[in-house]
Amino acid sequence: MRVELLGTAAAEGWPGLFCDCGVCAHARVHKGKDVRTRSSLLIDRRLKIDFPPDTFYHTIAYNIELRTLQALLFTHAHDDHFCPTELQYSGVHFVSKLLERPLPVYGPPEVIETLRPMQQKSALPLELHTLCVWKTETIAGYEVTPIRAHHDPTITCFNYVLRDARGTTLLYASDTGWYDEETWSFLLNYKLDAVIAECTKGPIEGDYGGHMSISDVVKMKQWLLENGIIRPDTPIVATHFSHNGGFTHAQLEAALGKAQIVAAYDGYVLSVGQ
Questions:
Q1: How far is residue 183's CA from residue 233's CA, in Å, rounded to a whole number?
Q2: Helix (H) or strand (E) segment spanning residue 257
Q3: Rounded distance between C-alpha atoms, residue 197 and residue 215, angstroms
């Protein structure tokens, strides 16, 4: 399983669109790993998770051909992960040749309910599927299980456990705060080969409970280890960072590295089970 992290920022990107804090100023000058676009990932060039406003840039920066995707999977309907207006450009007025087959799109109810009238009005080549929490579906050749995230109680928010044909199993945990007991209990059914977890708050403790901090990601790793879900050498990768945490990439890397957790950056590639 080859996982490309196309973007690793929280909602407003990094540097923040209208922000002049120290880490945003640093990013504007130094660029490199301190510039982050909105979060999305690509698995084996077949399955894309989320479609943020920066998708157009991602296709250019990483040479991605969206026409060859086998499926598109959404975590939730927040607009830094779900930019539905961009999907209109799959339609007949914006391409020289329609997709050879409709693109299967999967996600929670709010995502699919938003896309359905668009799809019907413009005859977009999309095949829409609503997912249910805890129910495994086969998507683009992967066993995909939505688990309940702890993020926004007003909408359905999923994290995912994904397993490929060789049995390689990945947990994608963004956006979420500390899981509810039901989700932790469900994860006891798995042995994970890699974990990608959000770390929006960086070093900040407390405040909004729908995101995690560095200490939360460390605690997550410890819990997974103690319960035999991961091994000591299982890769743990942190993503979905906000500049409001006040750490540069180097500082995130140093803080997370103490717990053998990788601070991802845009374009980071994780190869698992290969």
A1: 23
A2: helix 249-257
A3: 12
**What does DSSP assign to residue 219?**
H
Q: How far apart are CA 227 and CA 240, in angstroms?
A: 25
Q: What is the C-alpha separation between 195 and 157, in angstroms, rounded?
A: 18
Distances (CA, A) of 60 to 56, 63, 65, 143: 7, 5, 9, 29
Q: The pTM is what? A: 0.96
CA distance 99 to 159: 28
CA atoms of 91 and 15, how far apart (whole Å): 32
Q: What digits encode the pLDDT tens for the residues 210-257?
A: 999 999 999 999 999 999 999 999 999 999 999 999 999 999 999 999
Return all residues near 114 (Cβ < 8 A) that are at least 6 apart: 77, 82, 84
Q: What's the CA gap between 240 and 13, in Å, rounded?
A: 9
Write the Ramachandran bin of 193: left for phi over 0, alpha for psi from -120 to 50, otherwise beta. Answer: alpha
Q: CB-based contacts of 44: which residues, under 8 Å, 6+ apart?
A: 1, 2, 164
d(CA 117, CA 27): 40
CA 118, distance to chain mean position in Å, is 24
Output the six-digit token pair for 11: 């909602």
Return the amino acid letter for 195. V
Supply the DSSP symbol for 161: E
Distance CA 271, CA 90 (A): 30
Distance from C-alpha of 113 to C-alpha of 103, rounded to nearest angstrom: 16
How does DSSP classify residue 163? E
The predicted pLDDT at position 207 comes to 82
Any bridge partners for residue 124, and if so which? none
* CA atoms of 213 and 88, how far apart (whole Å): 36
